[in-house]
Amino acid sequence: MSSTELPYVPSANVLPKVAPVRVAEGERLRSVQLPGMTLTVRSRPPAREGLPPALCVHGLGGSSQNWSALMELLDADVDCEAVDLPGFGDSPPPDDGDYSVTAHARAVIRYLDASDRGPVHLFGNSLGGAVTTRVAAVRPDLVRTLTLVSPALPEIRIQRTAVPTALLAVPGVVSLFTRFTTGWTAEQRVRGVVTLCYGDPGRVSHEGFRNAVEEMERRLQLSYFWDAMARSARGIVNAYTLGGQHGLWRQAERVLAPTLLVYGGRDQLVRFRMAQKAARTFRDSRLLTLPDAGHVAMMEYPETVAKAFRELLVEVGSDGAPPGASRVSAGGAESASTGS
Q1: Most buried among 99, 118, 206, 250, using CB within 10 Å?
Q2: Which residue ranges form the domains of the chain, and what is each CATH number?
C-alpha cells in the first residue's frame, strides 16, 4: 500500500474566511492521501536523525494539536507525528462515512503501512486509546510500545459527568443540542470542554485558551463537525457492546507491546478505578496515576507523562523489546503517583 503526500492546504470543507489550522513553532502539517480518506499529519523535526518513530492519536472532539506539548518534550527521544482522525482536526470526513472504532483503527493502520514507519511507539488518548488498543491487538508488527492516556475502554457504569458525551450517540440528540446551544459562543463551549477534561482548569494558560477558542470557531463552521462527533460517539458506544474476540477488553488482553497506562484521579469521563483493571488486563503494563489530573494528562501534565515514557524507553530498549529477554509480565503494574 502506498500513500501520496500532498502539499498541505486547509480542508476544502472549511468555509471561506475561516482561520487556518494552528501550527505551533517547529511543527509542520502535511496531507496524506490514502484509500478512502485523506489524513492531516502533524510533525516536528526530531532533535537528531535515527530516532525511533512515534505516532499519537487524539480523542473524541480532539485533534493532533492535543499532542503538541508532549511532542515538543519528546523531540530528543522519538521522531514524533500526530494524526487527525478522519472528520477531526483538518482531516476531511472518510469517503464511506464510517466513524466506528474499527474504521478509525483502519485509518491508523493504513497510514502506518503506507508511511512504512512501523513499528512505532503508539500513543492514544480517550477514543484514541480505544483505537490504538485495537491497532496493537490486530497488528502487533506495527507497535513497539503502547502509551494510553485515559483510554475509552468499556465500563459497566459510566460516570454521571460522561453521560452528556455518551448521549451524542443517540439519534436526534445532536440536532436538539445544536438548536439548544445556538447562542453559545465558542468561548463558552471551550470553557465547558476545559472544565470537563481538565482536573484543574486553571492550568490552561491564557494563550492556550485563546488558541482553543480560535480552533473551536473554525470547527463550528465545518459542515461535518457535529456529524463526525455524533458518529464517533456512536462508534464508541457500539464498541462497548461488542463481545467475544472483538471486544476491546479481550483485545487488550492480546496486546503484546509493553504498555504505559496513564490515568487521572479527577477524570470526569473515564473512571479512575478502571486503572487497576487495565493494569491487570494488559499483559506487559506499567501504571502511572496522577491524582490531580483530568482526562487529558498529556496536555495537563506533559512533563510527567514525558518522563514516564522516557523510563519506558529505557526499560524496553531501543528496539522496543525488553533488553536481554522477550519478557511478558502477566498483568504486572508499576504504580507511580504525583500531584504535580
Answers
A1: 99
A2: 4-337 (3.40.50.1820)
